[in-house]
Write a structure and sequence with these properties.
The structure is a single chain. The protein contains five helices and two strands. The protein is mainly alpha-helical and about 110 residues long.
Length: about 110
Amino acid sequence: MPRDSLKPIDILRHELKALRFILDNFHSGKLGAEGLPPREDFQSPQGRALYDSIVKAADRKSAEHAIAELELDDVDIDSFLHLSGEHYYTYPTLVRERAAAVRTGKLTVEGT
């Protein structure tokens, strides 16, 4: 990893891309539970709230409805729901890798 620390907004930005990909692929069966980063790998409370809304929902429509009800700081829910996640296939792995680096101290989050 090229940097020793990350800003919280950068973490959130990458988590949103991972979550958008997960929303597009989880309920369709294109991405199984084994392909999901664990919930604890999401560093932001916004990421964890979106993750819960997606994986706990019975289907994509229910997930989208649950997400639409959320009010999250620094997240434009309407944009999140209308963007495509098809190009974000690398981001779930990035979330896992960064969480592991934070846990081992190889990477820090600024301001924490």
